[in-house]
Structures are given as C-alpha cells and as structure tokens.
Amino acid sequence: MAKRKTAVAFKGTEEQEGQLLAFIEQHRSMQGNLMPVLQKAQEIYGYLPIEVQKIIAKELGIPLAEVYGVVTFYAQFTLNPKGEYKIAVCLGTACYVKGSGDVLDRISRKLGIESGGITPDGKFSLDATRCIGACGLAPVMTINDDVYGRLNLDEVDGIIEKYM
Amino acid sequence: MSTVKLTINGIAVEAPAEATILEAARLANVRIPTLCYLKDVNPLGSCRMCLVEVKGARSLATSCIHPVNEGMEVTTNSPALRAARRQNLELMLSNHRTDCLSCSRSTDCELQALCREYGVDQYKFGDSGLEADYEFSMPHLVRDNSKCILCRRCVAVCRKNQHVGVIGTNERGYDTHIASAFDMPLAETSCVACGQCIAVCPTGALTERDDTGKVWEALADPGKHVVVAPAPSVRAQLGECFGMPIGTNVEGKLIAALRRLGFDKVFDVDTAADLTIMEEGTELLERLNNGGKLPMITSCSPGWIKFCEHYYPDLIENLSSCKSPQGMYGAMMKTYYAEKNAIDPKDMFVVSIMPCTAKKFEIGRDDMSAAGAGIADIDVSLTTRELAQMIKEAGIIWEDLPDEEADPAFGVASGAGHIFGVTGGVMEAALRTVYEIVTGKTLDAPEFHDVRGTKNIKEAEYDLNGTKVRVAVTSGLANAAELLERVRAGEADYHFIEVMACPGGCVNGGGQPHQPGDVRNFTDLRAVRAGALYSEDSGMALRKSHENPVIKELYDTYLERPGSHKAHHVLHTSYVKREL
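^ Those are the sequences you sent over. The predicted structure of the assembly is below.
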C-alpha cells in the first residue's frame, strides 16, 4: 500500500497550524466534524501526514487510528504531498491493454516508490490515473503538463532521467 | 418495563420493548447464530449471520440490531435463511486463510463452529490464496490478518471498553484490514497489552504469543530448578478449557496438573497477593499519616499501569510503588527462595500462570530483576489458555486429576489473596488488613459488600478509628478514565482507588479461556466467574493477609517488616512516562 507514512519531511508552518486550529474551534460542537476538518486540513497542507492527523486526533478527542481509518477509506484524501514533477500513468482500459501497467511498474522500480508515493527528495510523485482521454496515444503518461504517448518500456527510464 | 408480544418460529414470546429480535428469540429458547455481535460493545449487524425473516419486511433483517415490535412474526430457520447464512460463510472463507489443522483456535473458533453447523463448502469460491500476515511487535500478541473476518470486535473493545483505540479499520474494499494508524507496529502505539482484543476475537486472527515452548524446554533441562505459581483467577477459569461450567473452582486439579507437568515446586501467586496487601496497606497508611500523595492507586494490573503511563502520566506519583503479585512472587523466588535453598538464581526458571496478557509485557519491564545481574524475576508468564494447552499436550486426563495443595513454602494463601482476581478484591483484601491494624479490632465478618459487584464505579467510605477513608473501585479502562478525569479535575477526594484494566477484573482477563459471543451475549462472565472466588474465600478459616503464617515467616526471616529497606528493594518498583 502506498498509503503509509510519507518519505518527505513535514514542512508545516505555524501559520498553517493556526488556520487548522481556528477551523477546528469553529466546528468543535458540530456532530460528524471529522470529515470537514480533514477536508480543510488537506486544503491547508495539500496532504494529510501523521503530524497533521495527530493534531486533529488530539483536538477532536478521537484516537489516531480512527482518524487514519477515515483518511484511508476515502480516495479524496492523500497521505503524500505531490512532487515537483507529478508523474501520472494512465491505467484506463486502452492504455492498460497496451501495457501501461508495465510502464507503471518500471517507473515505480526506477524511482523506488509505489503508486501514490513520493521520492524522499520531493522531486517526483507517482500516481496511477483513470482514463485521461488520450486513448489514441495509448499507453500514455504525463509529467506535469508534458504528455508522453505510444510509450514503449525501453524509453521510460530515459524520459524520467530528463527531469532528474 | 413495557413489553411487546411477538412470535418466533410460531412460539409466542413477550419481550421487553427495547429488546432485539436476537434477545427475544432466546426467550423462546431459539438460538440465532452471530459472529460480529457483542452485546453493548459491537452492535454492527455487519457479518449477517443473524439474518431472520420478518413477516411483511422487504428484506432479511439482522436480528442482533433489529428491535422487536408488537405483533411481529419472525422466522429464524428456513431454507432461504440457511442458504443465506451458508453463502455468507463461504464468502468469508474466500478471504480467510483456512489453516484449521495448525491454527491455535481450532475447535475453539467461532467461524469454524458455524461452518460445521451450516455444512459449508470450504472451496466453493476457491482457495483464498492468502499468506500469513503477522504483526508481533508486542510481547503479548500475534495478529494474523489473513485470518481476520473484519468483525471489528477487537476495534470496539479497544476503543469502547478500554478507551485505548490503537487499532482501527484501515483502507477500503479488498484492502480493508485491522491495524494501527499508519500501520505502525503496535509496540509504537499506546497499546496497553490488556489482551481484551484477543479474548473477543472469534477466529485465530488474534492470539497471545505462545511461550509454552520455553517452558517445555526448561522442564526438560535437568540443570534448571523450575517453579510455577498460578494467579488467583486462574483456578476460577481453567475448568472452562476442559468443558466444566463457567465459575467452577478447580484449584486442587490445577495444582495437581502443574505437578504432573513436572515442575519442581508448585507455589501460589495468592501468597504473593497477601504479601502485596502487607506492602500496599503499609504504604497507604504511610501516605495517610505523613501527607503522602493521595489518592493512592493500586498497581496490580500491568495493563492499567501502562495505560496510566501513557494517558495519565501526571498521576504516576499516585500509583502504589508495589510490584504486582506476579512481580513479588518472581522477586521472592529469585532472592529469598533461592538463598534459603542454596540455589543459584541463574539456575532457576520461574513461571507464572496468569489470566492476563499484559503480564507478558510486565516481566520485561526495567525493574523486574530483584536478584540483579540481569536475572529476570519471572522467566515466562503463561496465560490460562496456554496452560490448558500444555495439560492437553502432556496427556494428563483432567477428569481423573485429584485435588492437591500447593507446596507450603510459598503456597499458603488467605481468602483475601484469592479474591484479588475480582474487581474490588484488592480493595477488600486491603481493607481487611488495614482496618484491623488501625483499629486494633478483629473483623468477625470480613466482607466489604460495597466494593463487590460489577458496577462500573463503586464508592464507599469507612471509619478507621475516627479517620474517614474514602475509596473507589473500578475496572475496564474506559471506566477508569471516567474516574480519573474526576480525580484530575479535583472533583473527587478519595484516599484509595483500585483499578483493574479488564472489565470485571482478572476473571475476565485477556488471557482467560475463550467464550464465544453466544455465551458472552447472554451471560455476565464477570459475575459468574467472580462467584467461584468469593465462595472459596467465604469457606476459608484464613481470610486475612496479615494472619497468613507464610507471610509472617517471610517478614520474620527475610523482609524484616512491611515497607522495610529490604522489602523496598525486592518488592517495589517505579514507573515511566510514556508518549501517546
């Protein structure tokens, strides 16, 4: 599972924490406040690392295990920040039958991270996506706004190396 | 109490208006199978074993959470229901590592029992193909999620009964699994090792760490002097592992079985319980008379101690410095007993039989080496269940065992020592001794009824020669947390508090025999099991710790007096603040 502790050091600021605490204060008495608090926290920090989940657990008086359970249940929450270069490999049907699963594995091995993960230097994050609507170019991946289509496995390493 | 009338399989029943169909069915002597349901703790309706037909309803109802209604007509046994339950079980097996021949819960597994009842085809959906998925970072527990059926009983008891909540349901769909936050090892969380999760697990997903191998090895080693002693509550429960009714006291057979396993000496932790009372009672009087930190809180329950260290570190000074009875027994074995019998403590192997999994954690605490040189006071702590396993493996015929008595050197105990295994027992035992010491009077009827029973928090006030002593007793860590919040807030002015980690005390400990939901949901195990210890106590002549001749001898020949320098070195300990 990629939803574990992130490899990147936490860089949250006091200002961000202040924003989160203020939001929690406003919603303290609200029933079912965990979801809106998590959404707000992700809006503030961009992701939900253990440091942020611990603040939420403590403030709301909910065990960390329960907070984490909710975070990992919903696909909208992420435990990892996005990297400087966001690699997205399309696993839509057309790309998948054209071998994008192997492309994903190749990048995963090259960078030493799983889908949903980020390299410790914060440079690359890797995600598997649903169909991005470029089936004619299958298999496809994107790195930020650059699109790479009709990939064959042998060129994948070279493409990644251009960004290193 | 208002009631409603309904029929279960055509049998007319009058049930309390707030009853569930499951409960009403019991009144008609009809058993409905359950797997995830635990009364008051886990009313989820997720396993869907308890499905019933309700006339007029659109779909099958989960009887464990479905309330009764006036005029309801319920069917619990029909071809459609049996098929639905069978298919649910087959679906569970499709995602269960079916390992029955080597699983430690085999013949004692709720899933296996239901599969037998419903004639399930284990391979209908193919083999699960799952591999073992172990977590064993704590010394007391092994989790194997490949056998987990996601009933969530463990999550519920951890959070609701124990106020700990270090496990939860992570991720979703096929990836759903029970684990700590961020899948951290349990050892990095504030898990208190109470083992309540193990006690309620219906399958082999949660088990204690099996330490019987180390004991077999020591027993086979002619160079080792191997001694053993059972905790108070073990005698009230071990019989359950051999088909005896819940609440049967099997002290005599227990001692006989231990002797037949080959232990060199069979002692009794109840003797150490009496010793605990002498030390703890003295400490209480010391604190009362010299302005010490109050309320003093008992320290017999290692799950409670770890909970306090994590969650109430500000109350550590309130904890009695006494080691638990297990700790005192081990320390006395490797010092006093070793010296008296001229045995090198290195050549001794000390085993305790405990109702508890936290005791496996306790023996590894920093301070548990009275003999010094890194020699552990206790070498192995086994649960009641592990002992039952050893007895079976040794080919001992339980039914034919005679009643025997423990070896007298450390095997004579008072009734006060016996009742340690029940919530309120330590308090009552302490009161018997403290009352007589302070007032100089003899208690003709040494029962303190106010501190008995299964109420969540019990309170009482006693007059000790003009001094009012206010006491409180609680068990289950959620109840303890409620009580301690009041202490923390300065709203409670108790002098002495007894806390046991497990609801009902040791009789309901995490190392006690498994009882299926079927039994747990309709029997108050805490009360029935406690009865065995109270009745033993009431039939005894020796009922007060300070009258125990062995205790007197220990002080006369070794420990000098309660609270002496020597006693502190051997019998007392300290605590550490732990992170949350």
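The two ends of chain B are 44 Å apart (CA to CA). Residues 10 and 73 of chain B are 7 Å apart (CA to CA).

Shout if you want it in another format.
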